[in-house]
Amino acid sequence: MTTGWKTIILMAMGLFLFSRILNGTLLFYINERFFWLSVLAAVGLILVGVSYRYRADHDHHEPDHAGYSHGRLSWAGLLLIASPIVLGLVIPPKPLGAAAMTNRDISLESLTSAAAPEGGIILSKPKTEKNILDWIVEFRQTSDPAALAGEEVKLVGFVYRDERFGEDSFMVSRFVVSCCAADAAPIGLVVHWPDSPTLADDQWVEVVGVLEPGEFEGEQLPLVKAASVTPTDVPNQPYLYPF
Question: What topology is assigned to 98-231 in CATH?
């Protein structure tokens, strides 16, 4: 591949990454703590592309050195390098949702594995500001899960169901991301709501209600008795992050 093509591909990759940063969809793929590293990467790709352009101009005016040949990249290599741009343009950006949970073994253990280990510090957030992960952490850390009964909750997540859920229940779910979407782990709380059949799978909702003692597949855990379930937009940060 000529230097001109290297310039085009590198700058295109940098600009594509910038487009994901500017439209807010970058957080569909990575943990928010890597945001500024992604900005630096985009700037770096563009600067390297510009440097190749200057190199092309320099090589054009310099005589070839005896015994020296410039490295060439095959068209297969070009397609491999350009594939992230092509896939990013063809496939609309979308956070992980219920479809990503279909082939997973969803159990109480898998739903709490992303939370902080036993013995950690109980969160000091106001109860109405706690998200799904916060409540799971508190559930794992409390010596008496029944003590959470009656606690008011306000949760945002997507609707997940499988054959284990009755008509009046679903799971309000999120993914916990440590690094990127590749290591995402699903978590969720079971919600009891009479109008659950009206909700579409993968629909994002805001659940307001109270916790009550319950069980899921024979395991004790708090359930959410919903007072209201309202459709909502996908959050700017669709994933939750461990401590």
Answer: OB fold (Dihydrolipoamide Acetyltransferase, E2P) (2.40.50)
